[in-house]
């Protein structure tokens, strides 16, 4: 049985739904830019859970929202609207463009599609209904500035997920929006904001035209698409507070129950030892990896080399290494008979079930790869089964291409030029060979190519 660390209880708990059904919600992307490899690590987490839970016999329904409105940047501007200005494109065109690119990235990483991807902007009615109910039942109020706020003090167990209890939260602490003095309590947050001079991405409501807060979007959509019992809720560690605390307060107040059974958070990814940020200029996209002729699934394998609950450092060297490993494993799988049946290794799957211990699972595969106790056929079967969880396309045959006659001739001429110390000619030939798709290396025992 699959067990996962549960953030609120701070312990490993079995993953179980009602009967054989498992309902999972994963906070989706804010579609104002391409997902970077850190975002993709978090999106891989829900895929891994999906694969492991499915393997354990559960029928998983996964909902992942698309945040196309309401997510504010530090300067309090809507991220999608800000990008729409900088690209001189309609905000909805921006949102759809980056949503398409998000799906493209998921495909390239073999991330299984969610059951549906509801868009915030298409579910505004649900949010309005939720806010009306929260006001009617005394959990929210319309403030003097016209915005609607959630009354944090109406929810006594606020802070249970992150440990950030209300009495310890100081005024002036950043809660995503720094509103003026209209709130009753400094930790209250906006459910609905009046448009004021904003003219795009606004909707009519009983409180005037405006737009939703980011947190209410996830409550409204998760309750609508999954119901009042959500078995598992996934997101990156930074969402624990305030996003998930606020979502929990809203959803529990709306239903009078503890809506989410199991909160799961993935740790962050660094790149070459540093936090990725636009200002530092070190944001890495999946496309950057592909542009270096590294298999995008090498990113997937690199993520899997680390436990989802540990911060990890992705490097170009680890991506290159993962690329070679995948090639080698494809060779290993294709060495089996043409009709290889997958055969799951117990130790491998036990490691996966133990809070997705992918490093241990991969270590087990490497031990099998090296061991002489397994035949080539058995290895092929085990790796094929493991790939149902790993998603590395190991059954794809390694690409073996023959040299063309022209390439062989050029290689021969270049070897000759080198032996004659005619370096100008050898450089000229190297350029031609590289243009034909070969990589050339010069070593102590002559040139080699790949
Ligand atoms: P966003 O598109 O900014 O709303 O983020 C989408 C998801 O990516 C959220 O679950 C974030 O917690 C997660 N995330 C953001 N930065 C990182 C990072 N460096 N490493 C891992 N996950 C991240
Ligand atoms: Zn969310």
TrEMBL record:
<dbReference type="GO" id="GO:0005524">
    <property type="term" value="F:ATP binding"/>
</dbReference>
<protein>
    <recommendedName>
        <fullName>Cysteine--tRNA ligase</fullName>
        <ecNumber>6.1.1.16</ecNumber>
    </recommendedName>
</protein>
<keyword id="KW-0436">Ligase</keyword>
<dbReference type="Pfam" id="PF01406">
    <property type="entry name" value="tRNA-synt_1e"/>
</dbReference>
<dbReference type="InterPro" id="IPR014729">
    <property type="entry name" value="Rossmann-like_a/b/a_fold"/>
</dbReference>
<keyword id="KW-0479">Metal-binding</keyword>
<dbReference type="InterPro" id="IPR015803">
    <property type="entry name" value="Cys-tRNA-ligase"/>
</dbReference>
<keyword id="KW-0067">ATP-binding</keyword>
<dbReference type="InterPro" id="IPR024909">
    <property type="entry name" value="Cys-tRNA/MSH_ligase"/>
</dbReference>
<keyword id="KW-0648">Protein biosynthesis</keyword>
<keyword id="KW-0547">Nucleotide-binding</keyword>
<feature type="domain" description="tRNA synthetases class I catalytic">
    <location>
        <begin position="20"/>
        <end position="323"/>
    </location>
</feature>
<feature type="domain" description="Cysteinyl-tRNA ligase anticodon binding">
    <location>
        <begin position="402"/>
        <end position="449"/>
    </location>
</feature>
<dbReference type="GO" id="GO:0046872">
    <property type="term" value="F:metal ion binding"/>
</dbReference>
<dbReference type="GO" id="GO:0006423">
    <property type="term" value="P:cysteinyl-tRNA aminoacylation"/>
</dbReference>
<dbReference type="InterPro" id="IPR032678">
    <property type="entry name" value="tRNA-synt_1_cat_dom"/>
</dbReference>
<keyword id="KW-0030">Aminoacyl-tRNA synthetase</keyword>
<dbReference type="InterPro" id="IPR056411">
    <property type="entry name" value="CysS_C"/>
</dbReference>
<dbReference type="GO" id="GO:0005737">
    <property type="term" value="C:cytoplasm"/>
</dbReference>
<dbReference type="GO" id="GO:0004817">
    <property type="term" value="F:cysteine-tRNA ligase activity"/>
</dbReference>
<keyword id="KW-0862">Zinc</keyword>
<dbReference type="InterPro" id="IPR009080">
    <property type="entry name" value="tRNAsynth_Ia_anticodon-bd"/>
</dbReference>
<dbReference type="Pfam" id="PF23493">
    <property type="entry name" value="CysS_C"/>
</dbReference>
């Amino acid at each position: 049985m699959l067990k996962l660390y549960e953030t609120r209880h701070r312990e490993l708990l079995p993953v179980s739904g009602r009967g054989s059904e498992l309902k999972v919600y994963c906070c989706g992307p804010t579609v104002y830019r391409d997902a970077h490899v850190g975002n993709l690590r978090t999106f891989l987490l829900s895929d891994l859970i999906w694969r492991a839970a499915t393997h354990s016999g559960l029928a998983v329904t996964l909902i992942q929202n698309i945040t196309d409105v309401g997510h504010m940047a530090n300067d309090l501007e809507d991220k999608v609207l800000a990008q729409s200005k900088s690209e001189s494109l309609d905000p909805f065109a921006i949102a759809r463009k980056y949503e398409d690119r998000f799906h493209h990235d998921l495909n390239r990483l073999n991330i299984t599609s969610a059951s549906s991807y509801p868009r915030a902007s298409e579910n505004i009615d649900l949010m309005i209904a939720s806010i009306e109910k929260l006001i009617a039942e005394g959990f929210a109020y319309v403030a003097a500035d016209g915005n609607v706020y959630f009354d944090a003090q109406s929810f006594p167990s606020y802070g249970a997920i992150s440990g950030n209890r209300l009495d310890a939260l100081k005024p002036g602490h950043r809660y995503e929006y720094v509103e003026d003095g209209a709130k009753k309590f400094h930790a209250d947050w906006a459910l609905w904001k009046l448009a004021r001079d904003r003219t795009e991405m606004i909707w009519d409501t009983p409180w005037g035209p405006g737009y939703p807060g980011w947190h209410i979007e996830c409550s409204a959509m998760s309750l609508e698409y999954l119901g009042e019992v959500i078995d598992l809720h996934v997101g990156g560690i930074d969402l624990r507070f305030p996003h998930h605390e606020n979502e929990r307060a809203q959803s529990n107040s709306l239903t009078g129950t503890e809506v989410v059974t199991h909160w799961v958070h993935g740790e962050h990814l660094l790149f070459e030892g540093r936090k990725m940020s636009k200002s530092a200029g070190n944001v890495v996209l999946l496309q950057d990896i592909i542009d270096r002729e590294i298999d995008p699934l090498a990113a997937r394998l690199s993520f899997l080399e680390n436990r989802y609950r540990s911060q990890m450092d992705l490097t170009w060297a680890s991506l290159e290494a993962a690329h070679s490993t995948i090639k080698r494993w494809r060779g290993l799988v294709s060495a089996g008979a043409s009709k290889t049946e997958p055969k799951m290794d117990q130790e491998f799957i036990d490691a996966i079930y133990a809070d997705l211990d992918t490093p241990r699972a991969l270590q087990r595969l490497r031990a099998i790869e090296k061991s002489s106790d397994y035949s080539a056929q058995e290895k092929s079967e085990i790796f094929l089964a493991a790939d149902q969880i790993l998603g590395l396309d190991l059954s794809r045959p390694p690409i073996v291409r023959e040299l063309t006659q022209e390439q062989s001739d050029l290689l021969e001429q270049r070897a000759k030029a080198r032996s004659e110390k005619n370096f100008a000619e050898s450089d000229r030939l190297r350029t031609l060979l590289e243009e034909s798709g070969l990589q050339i290396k010069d070593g102590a025992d002559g040139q080699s190519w790949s």
